[in-house]
Amino acid sequence: MRWIGEGEQVFSVRVDLIAPDRSSSWVSPLAEALVALLPHTNGTDRSLVGVDQRRGHEGSPVAGLTFMLRADGYGPAAELAVATAQAAGAAAGVTGRVFDVVLVPEDTFVLPESERDIPMPD
Asked: Is 11 exposed, middle or buried (0-12, 13-18, 19+ CB in 10 A)?
């Protein structure tokens, strides 16, 4: 597992950024930029990182970034999630506004880490 941040709590996060268009050409560069920002690892091959392209609630294209982070509480986790997503977006040329943020604390996960999967579209 790869993650960013320091803190007592582990969160799985998803941040949707408004995408530049409906093209999928920016998905791989955005995924590479996101992985480069996650400095910590527990040594497993499962990175639990994913980037996908979807439609937002109003039909606009969004880039969804899913990754793990550590923080001391929901507020700091949300701030770190947004900052990380925006930094990855800037590195890949996806500079849209934040559309949505979801935080899931690790203590609510049912599956063990070895069985979790965040699919990456091909």
From this structure: buried
